[in-house]
Amino acid sequence: VEDTNIHSVSELLRSVGSVPIPPYLDRDAEASDEHAYNNVYASGEGSVAAPTAGLHFTDPLLAKIGQDNISYLSLHVGAGTFKPVVAEDVRDHAMHGETFVVSVGELQRIIESLESRKRIVVVGTTSSRTLESLYWCGAVINDKSHAETISGRTSLMIFSGYKFRVVEDLITNFHAPDSTLMLLVSAFLGNPEKVRSVYENAQDRGYRFLSYGDACYFS
């Protein structure tokens, strides 16, 4: 049967698909997920997961922060973000790749902030991976001065011992153990015992974990 009202793959997916909520929620997607599991500042299509740290940001909160203080990037989060680390040595983990797009103007603002030593607060672990990858893109801006955007694909895996170049403060949710997201948080805090202490304190205080859970601010 041919549906003449469908003219693109995107329309087909909307017609027969559902919101790809995280598998650990162990339920089917509900109508409310279409709004709840999406960032208010989201644009474009391509992610199979929401950058959940951004779910805490509302339009009024963004207005209070001020658009002049916010930089945006586009990241197509892949299903690999839910893939657990099962390798005994984390360096043997097959890290998934994710596509990103950022305007040259935004990238220049980030570089200027670094040069003027302004604190950069990053929302989310996936955004952190992208920004750390973009650190190395700064050198190619002059070669692409005619371009309006820079796009690429990153499979950067951040774990203990990594030296952060861009991220100074991190807003993130509480993650599942044995995930690459948890490895990044551990690397940011610099000590696995600090992570254990934070998570035990969160459990004691009844904080909610994972995608629809609470957020924490690390500095």
UniProtKB/TrEMBL annotation:
One term of GO molecular function: S-adenosylmethionine:tRNA ribosyltransferase-isomerase activity
Residues spanning the membrane: none
Domain of life: Eukaryota
Organism: Fragilariopsis cylindrus CCMP1102
GO biological process: tRNA queuosine(34) biosynthetic process
SUPFAM superfamilies: QueA-like
Keyword terms of this UniProt record: Cytoplasm, Queuosine biosynthesis, S-adenosyl-L-methionine, Transferase
Pfam families: Queuosine_synth (PF02547)
Record-given protein name: Queuosine biosynthesis protein
